Amino acid sequence: MLLSLIFGIALLGACSQNDNKMNDMDQSTMEHEMDDDMMEGHMDHDDEVSLNDSTGKNELKIPKELEQDEKSKEIVYTVQAQKGKTEIFDGTQTDTIGYNGAFLGPMLRFNKGDIVKIKTINELDEETTFHWHGLEVAGDADGGPHSALQPGEEKVIEFKVDQEAATLWFHPHPNGKTSEQVYNGLAGLIYIEDENSKSLGLPNKYGQNDIPLIFQDRTFDDERQLNYDAAMNDDGTIGDTLLINGTLNPKLTVKKEKVRLRLLNGSNARNYTFKMNSGDSFTQVATDGGFLNDPVTLEEITLTPSERAEIVVDFSSLDTSDDLALIDEEGSILLPFDVSEQGEKAGEITEEMNQFTITEKEMNLPVTKKVELYGMMDKVTINGKKFDPERIDFTQEQGVTEVWEIYNKPDEMGGMIHPFHIHGTQFKILSRNGKEPSKSEQGWKDTISVEPDETVKVAVQFQHKGVYMFHCHILEHEDNGMMGQIKVE
Ligand SMILES: [Cu+2]
């Protein structure tokens, strides 16, 4: 009760800072709702501040594809975390951080089989790490909190890309500072390609019909700065202003053709349910870690923080006389589409895109790891404990599949969704509350939403050795200790 009171007051403070964006009516409605919440002693995410509609004023920025340091047999990249200033609002410089630039980062394209060397450099004023989210690499290359680089330090990591085509991302993971560093701009994309991804006939012209979309909600203060301390919420920092690929008020110009959207929820805490404002369906082709076996037709898709999905929208078959846009569950306009020229006539999306299987044996394995997610604000725990870098919570043998059972234990206030992530692996969802997961989740995953009182069973195998984190991907929960470690031997 006391916690939610503090939460409520903090949120009221955050709202009043933003009253230039909120009319009196909205504000009083909100305060009223918050009073009710405080009476119930619970504020759940349904009461989150809504996103402002995108006006569509700015063409969506597309992250640059990072070029190799030199063309040689070795694939060598340099990725540097640095400070900068970014003109997010016209005529205003906002202090930001980024990789190889002032804000966010480039896209790194790997091919399956590549031996990749990355020189990582920390040019920030504080420690950071370089974590490759979803990449199956050895623990010492994974960039967890044990691999901190101090200001001015650099380190070369090396790994073989040994997993199938997927959209992954990279972000910092320093102990206790992940949320602030991501919030201020550290995030980049990884595309893995393989023979399959090149032969499926999916749109693959980067920036034209193959579009990455990094969704991040932010709160800007009166000076249009990202003031993390002011915006911070222990239960997950959210904001009223959506940036996609760092673009304020974005729109996307597309041709009348099939367009592949690689959706990444790169937010600290907000969940998004994406849909078309026209009610049209789209086709999901990939999960976090690879293609689905068969394309899935959907009218909406929900992604919790760090989850990805690739979807294909066929603009050639849509009525483009009305204004088309991607919206969220509340109807907020996230990304208006400007559909102009005629595009290429694309073929059908191949059925049988992948051979993802869950074997009888995997289905019948006993549960050997139990994870209980519990709490809210700074009282979050996993199996009753907070993160301790000196403590190994689990061990697992390299190459051996084990079934993990993840349970989200409700508290007296009901509880909330926790997105659960395991480093260094792509895993399979066996069941949700004993039932088969939706078609949309029958593919490789590294992050899953777990609803209050839900039990999710997953089959987990690690291809490499090392110490890996598993944690809630609400970044403030992670920083508040909702994280454990597994040693793979
Ligand atoms: Cu959480």
Give structural attributes.
489 residues; seven-stranded mixed beta sheet; six-stranded mixed beta sheet; disordered N terminus; binds copper (II) ion
Outline:
The protein is mainly beta. The protein has helices at residues 2-17, 24-40, 178-183, 195-199, 228-231, 360-364, 475-479, and strands spanning 58-59, 75-86, 94-99, 107-111, 115-122, 131-133, 154-160, 166-171, 188-193, 210-218, 241-244, 247-248, 250-256, 258-265, 272-276, 282-286, 291-298, 300-303, 308-314, 324-327, 333-342, 367-374, 381-382, 394-396, 402-409, 418-422, 428-432, 447-450, 455-460, 466-472, 483-488. Residues 380, 418, 472, 474, 477, 482 line the site of copper (II) ion (CU).
Write the layout of secondary structure elements.
Elements: H1 2-17, H2 24-40, E1 58-59, E2 75-86, E3 94-99, E4 107-111, E5 115-122, E6 131-133, E7 154-160, E8 166-171, H3 178-183, E9 188-193, H4 195-199, E10 210-218, H5 228-231, E11 241-244, E12 247-248, E13 250-256, E14 258-265, E15 272-276, E16 282-286, E17 291-298, E18 300-303, E19 308-314, E20 324-327, E21 333-342, H6 360-364, E22 367-374, E23 381-382, E24 394-396, E25 402-409, E26 418-422, E27 428-432, E28 447-450, E29 455-460, E30 466-472, H7 475-479, E31 483-488
Parallel strand pairs: 1-13, 2-5, 4-9, 10-14, 13-21, 22-25, 24-31
Antiparallel strand pairs: 2-3, 5-7, 6-8, 8-9, 10-11, 11-12, 14-19, 15-18, 15-20, 16-17, 16-19, 20-21, 22-23, 25-29, 26-28, 26-30, 27-29, 30-31
Bound molecules: copper (II) ion.
Residues 380, 418, 472, 474, 477, 482 line the site of copper (II) ion (CU).
